[in-house]
Amino acid sequence: xxxxxxxxxxxxxxxxxxxxxxxxLELINIDEPVEVCNKHILFLLESFQKGDITKQRLLDWVNTxxxxxxxxxxxxxxxxxxxxxxxxxxxxxxxxxxxxEKIKKYMHALENNIEI
Length: 116
Description:
With about 120 residues, this protein is mainly α. It has 6 helices and 2 strands, in the order ααβααβαα. It has helices at about 1-10, 15-20, 40-50, 55-65, 80-95, 100-110; strands at about 35, 70-75. The chain starts with a helix and ends with a helix.
């Protein structure tokens, strides 16, 4: 049940508020974190580019995946994903915008498994 809800969050089917209502983060006890691969972050970035999600939702997703301990990066793309997630998280902290140019750079890195 918990894994299913976390997968729905990872796949953008529910937002952070809904996740918190269905599964208060402080009450989650999960043995194996849910895997996040490059395709999940590509989908996140594409959804943002198309205007399907807001910058705030994108940042909520990044921060939840990055800091909750409930998700892990797939082995093959681990370094690449970490570098992109770090860039996205820093854009939140520094209040920088997410330009089309930056999004394309992140997508290129994810598609080619290269670090930024």
